[in-house]
Amino acid sequence: MSDFISLYTAFSGLTAAQAGINTASHNVANASTIGYTRQQVDLISRTPYHQRFGQVGQGVDIQQISRSRIAGLDTQVRTSVAAQGRLDVLSNLLSGTEALMGEPNSGITNSMSGLWGAFDELTLDPPNTAARHSVISALGELTTNIRNVAEKWEAEAASASSLLGKYVDETNGMLREVAELNRLILSASNFDGPPNDLLDQRDRLLDDLSNIAGVTATTMDNGSARVSLDGLSLVSDTMVSPLTYDPATHEVSHSAGAIVSVGGELAGFQSYLNTELPAFQAALNDFAKDLADGLNSQHAFGFTPAGNAGGALLNYVPGDEAASLTVAVSDHSQIAAAGSGSPVAEYDGLNAEALANLRSALVADGGTVSLDDSIRSLVSYVGEMTAAATSGSRTQAAMTAAAENGRMQAHGVSIDEEMVNLITYQRAYEAAARVMTAVDESLDTLINRTGVVGR
Amino acid sequence: MRVTHLGAHQAALTRINTRLSEYAVTQDQLASGKRMRRPSDDPTGMNRALELRAALAAREQEGRNAADGKMWMDLADSKLQDAVGQLQRVRELAVRGATFTSPQEREAIALEIGQLREDLVSLANSQHQGRGLFSGFSAGDAVQKVGGVWTYTGDAGQINRRVGENEVVTINVTADVAFGFSAGNDVFSVLDSLETALRADDTAGIETALGNVDDGLQTVLGGLGILGARANQIETAIARNADDKITLTQQLSSLEDVDIAEAVMDLELQKTAYEAALAAFAQSSQTSLVDFLR
Hints:
CATH architecture of the largest domain in chain B: Up-down Bundle
Distance between the termini of chain B: 27 Å
Helix content of chain B: 55-70%
Oligomer: heterodimer
Strand content of chain A: 5-15%
Order of helices and strands of chain B: HHHEEEEEEHHHH
Low-confidence stretches of chain B: none
Number of strands of chain B: 6
Structural class of chain A: alpha+beta
Number of strands of chain A: 13
Helix content of chain A: 55-70%
Low-confidence stretches of chain A: none
Shape of chain B: rod-shaped
Number of helices of chain B: 7
Order of helices and strands of chain A: HEEEEHHHHEEEEEEEHEEHHH
Mean pLDDT of chain B: 90
Largest sheet of chain B: 2 strands, antiparallel
Radius of gyration of chain A: 39 Å
Radius of gyration of chain B: 38 Å
Mean pLDDT of chain A: 92
């Protein structure tokens, strides 16, 4: 074999050390890059050549530059961020819903107390025009309050629904990006080593996709990522099956037509739109109906100063009670405060008294609770749901932070470690250079100093 | 365990944020003085707080109702006391009229009795805020002469005041009851016949009328008795109402308000924890191997 072989051996060491230094430098440069995976140079000793006395090593080969990534940690983080996305969206929406009620200082419960007070004041002085007017304005304040809550909730639902649509579009955009990255990765892998930085980019995208839609991602043998949801494939190699959103049912379906159960932030919107908010709205409608029916039926027992039986105090459209609740009386003479109509005594306030007594009467929820109880339990129902989502989101945030931190510790760059690597490779480089010098000197001896005896 | 610098920094940042947000919550509670700002801060507590608020509003209204009722009853009571005084004077005059025989004197007595009757009529028709005290729900006079006969022209309306949860007090007596119309022996007609008997020097008539005056006196005293019993009830209700309001306010405060001493302590602790987290980060993030390589 050639005498120059040792030069090549030393050169391989130089190249390896150079690659090591380059990689360490890349790692240090990306020490603060979120989602960056520490890279390492995988070295392997070259196949030796055979001499009659044994095998002589030929140096080192760079097998590849790989990412030190543990796939199990990704699964943990993605499951966690999907749950996080759902709870964050839900708790945000519910907090908004709760705030729109204005409880405890300026909400419906407050106007209810105002109404009962107005009826009591009317009892004190039935023919008093001011007292009659304050009943009408208390009714007005209460109905405005109820209508406001109903309308704002409806607006909240509309904006949540349009946001959900946008998020579905965003998901589709991300799916296309994954497919594009798959294409780049597939073509790059065919030539030279793993395209680490593209892989990092794709992993980051898959994290985001888990957060937004709770997708499942699997890496296939060819290096492409398969993204699926609810068992249906969304991205396979470079093929994308986009999701579509139906604003009427708030369902998300696969391009094949099947409705898929989504996770992540999309699930948060969906749960709010299909479960929590409709329950609140139904309870508010029930309350508005019970309120109107309760007041109207008692009012009908009474008589106006002119001797007519009391008409309706409140009007509503069945099926949409809360949002359509209005005051039916406009003039003080329409208030039926008297309990007896033949003839109407001027100071008869028996029906005003009966109306005031509705305060504690069991007229709501099929005659099981009072109106005050009914609205109060709606307030605490909204509060409970919000509190559950908020505390769930807080707990989940701690878990997500722990999972993300665990992954970051495993995948991220440790400056100390890179410094040690840098010194190691620097020394290796120096040593390889020294070897070259040594070989060069021996060759010099061989070439220039041999065969000159007696010259 | 492998530790990376970015990871360590992120973890430290999370810790610092957690400490700071705890600190902010306590600060917010101290500044507002409220433990619960939204229903979700404590759903069960908020439900109870809203119940207490509604109860407090109800008690306040009941307090106003009771005060209104009390005023009414005090006035009615004093009017009936006056009526008792007038009737006792009538009785004295009637006794004198039965014993003295001078026609001029009897005429003078008759005149005074006529005057007293007019006083009694105006007492029975007295008003409170434009509303007849003894006429039930009716707006007009309680007592009038209709076709030459004394008649109760009010109605039987019972004026009620809600003075507590499920406690209603009737605050009025009608002239029908208090002046004897319902018993068929109204004091006004009695006084009329007394006057007539005095002028006619009809001793037997005077005696009969005297007996009827005594009955009338008993009737008015009966009315006073009814009012007195109800006034007691309303006074008890007013006292209880004041107690209830204090209790409710205390309960509401203990439910909604921040325990200042405890919150200040918490704030101090959280401040220390926050500063410790900051200091720990500042200390630990200073060094790496780089500092020791030449």
